[in-house]
Sequence to fold (446 residues):
Amino acid sequence: MRVAIIGAGPAGLFAGAGLARRGHEVVAVERDPGPAADGSWPRLGVMQFHHAHAFRIQVAQALEQELPEALRRWLADGPEMVRMPLPDGTEVPMGVRSRRVTFESALRSAALAQPGLAVRRGHVDGVTRRPGRAAGIRVDGAEVAADLVIDASGRAGRATRSLRPPATSGGPCGVAYVDRQYQLHPGADPGPLANPIAWQADLPGYQVIVFIHERGIFSVLLVRPAADQELCQLRHEAAFTAACRAIPGLSDWTDPGRARPVTPVLPGGPLLNAYRGQTGHDGRLALPGLVFLGDAVATTTPTFGRGVTTTLLQARHLLELIDEHGTDAAAVGESFDAWCAAQIKPWVDDHVHMDESTRRRWAGEPIDLDRPLPSDLILAAAAADPRIGAAAPGYLAMTALPASLQSAEPLAKAVYATGWRPPFAPGPTRDELADVIRAARPAGAR
Fold:
């Protein structure tokens, strides 16, 4: 089978390499030229590329199954697999400490070495058709024939945008962040850790997360309401640095005697929780023979590090469906749409609920016990009732869907009904942080 893939990011490369391994003839078209000779990789148009990432164990498992050479190259560059201890004394695989650039570089180099997969630089103008189905893609005006087209162009892809209605779930999440990467000095100890992947501090009106990467590199995220213009000033280096010094725990991580910044301050773009299935405006497949994959299906707020995981989970299942249905384009598309609705959309809905609740709490609204509790509040209540923790491992590891927490929700509501609330981490309130920012902000900054 001839396969044309729009995009050569993680979704396109992983699916393309998997299909090529199965004997299919695959071409992936990508505007980005890839890493430069000196190793730098601007990755223009992919905002999240240089921002913080957490890689769950499912990512490593997917590579091990479909492209083990990519996993070998990835881990050889310094990332390490980590495990999480459980209350019963056992440990479970948790994820891989790595930057996105390290992951994508390893995946790209392994995929390019896969016979049967060609990565071509160009711009996809659209999908070509024959009666009733996709017939290929049009690249810079030239047609590339294909039996199957995969749109892995991400959340901003335009080539097929008109074929589907807007997202059926989610939208702007109302949360924004700014981050910066640092590297520990040789021999320096890391700052506080909540788990082997990250450290998090929830404060009145905002949140702080530190994601651990490879070779002593880590990312600091300051997460805020998107509409908060005062905290938006954290994009300025002086304000960001002052905030880091003012927040306990974070001041340890970013202490100049312990670590040095290795990137400028990186403002994040608009964040979306969005789900779009395989169907068009009439509720039927948008175009048989065309499959949407990765961020073209689902995007989630990055604070839980689920984006690449949901992408590769999709890609693995799509490969299984192609193995099963072959060139039956309608069967592949319909089966994939049903699976994504059952297995991927719940994670988007989970983020929609959490983000809405977080915004309300940041604005000072009380927890509404007449509504379903968001997942983060259910988990937080385990500090007051340890029985709640029994429902957490599957959800946290993404081996069980968010609905797995429903059994613990009555226990959590009972905790909150007593008046207990999750304690804030030590540090400045939102208004106090705004004062810190104002004092540090460069003259004339807007």
About this structure: The two ends are 54 Å apart (CA to CA). Residues 348-417 form one domain. The CA atoms of residues 2 and 25 lie 5 Å apart.
